[in-house]
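Form 7-S
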Amino acid sequence: MPVCDRGQWKSAKAVVMPIELDHFIVPSRDKAASAKLLAGLLGVRSAPAQLGPFHSVYVNDGLTLDFVDSDRTFPVHHYAFRVAEADFDRIFGRIQKAGIPYRSTPHGPVDMKINLDHGGRIVYWTEPDGHYWEILTVSYARLAKTGDP
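Output:
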């Protein structure tokens, strides 16, 4: 397997390590408020980042969402969190308790319904900066196919 050493590609024995998304930068108008809202809904920890100008949401042991203040126009992102059935119930309960409008489709009208397609449950909501958030219990992006991993 080729490796890069000081700009030169060389062959080396492969060290097998899965590719994992470590962190993602989330543009926001109010990083602390946005991070705290999401962390509260998901039931996870958030805090000012140890490095950089971020307010972090620690989604799990391997993924951090780093919210950063921006006064520029930024694109709307879509974030989907696959959760266990019991976690879905807890998160959905927090969404309802907070009075956050939700919907059964990514970009459709607020219908206050749960999507039951794809063998699980899905709910979408839009946060104050316009980003689309999603919780789902079965990944429609990874439906089993013969011969696929």
